[in-house]
């Protein structure tokens, strides 16, 4: 049994302590926006925020977390009634193709902007290390720039 603080709710999760956080989020809690990609924390499809830091959830066991850590998934990123600026920019620029990696990309971008509200293109390239098979990196970078400069409609 684990107690996790996910999207502002403390939830009891019945899993083995070595279960990766990703599987507790998807299988026990039922939040399927966070994706499984590689299982070795390389691709970033599983990115969530833990205390505001972009964290790859596929390789860290649930036992590493408790109710004091605030875990935010893609489902908890937006404010009620309004998308997060990164989500709005993603829609405005039609970023995704297949969309599989996009929740992880959005979470990584949101964490980047929270830590660095005006990142340079070099900052974006060095911090957003998520892998996109479709290769939408130019649109990802443009959407992050748009979210940073505040030129998106949030609702």
TrEMBL record:
User: Keywords assigned by UniProt?
Assistant: 2Fe-2S, Iron, Iron-sulfur, Metal-binding, Oxidoreductase
Q: Which Pfam families does this UniProt record tie to the protein?
A: Fer2, Fer2_2
The question of whether Manganese is a record keyword is answered with no
**What SUPFAM superfamilies does the entry give?**
2Fe-2S ferredoxin-like (SSF54292), CO dehydrogenase ISP C-domain like (SSF47741)
All copies of domain 2Fe-2S ferredoxin-type, residue ranges? 1-77
- InterPro entries, A to Z: 2Fe-2S-bd (IPR002888), 2Fe-2S-bd_dom_sf (IPR036884), 2Fe-2S_ferredoxin-like_sf (IPR036010), 2Fe-2S_ferredoxin-type (IPR001041), 2Fe2S_fd_BS (IPR006058), Beta-grasp_dom_sf (IPR012675), Diverse_Oxidoreductases (IPR051452)
What this protein is called in its record is (2Fe-2S)-binding protein
């Amino acid at each position: 049994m684990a107690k996790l603080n996910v999207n502002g709710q403390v939830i009891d999760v019945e899993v083995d302590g070595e279960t990766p956080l990703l599987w507790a989020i998807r299988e026990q809690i039922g939040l399927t926006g966070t994706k499984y990609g590689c299982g070795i924390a390389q691709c970033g499809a599983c990115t969530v925020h833990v205390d505001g830091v972009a964290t790859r959830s596929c390789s860290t066991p649930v036992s590493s977390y408790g109710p004091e850590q605030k875990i935010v998934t893609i489902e908890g990123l937006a404010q009620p009634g309004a998308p997060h600026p990164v989500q709005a920019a993603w829609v405005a620029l039609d970023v995704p193709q297949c969309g599989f990696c996009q929740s992880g990309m959005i979470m990584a971008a949101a964490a980047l902007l929270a830590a660095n509200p005006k990142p340079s293109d070099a900052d974006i390239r060095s911090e957003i290390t998520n892998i996109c098979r479709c290769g939408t990196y130019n649109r990802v970078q443009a959407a992050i720039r748009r979210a940073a400069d505040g030129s998106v409609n949030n609702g």
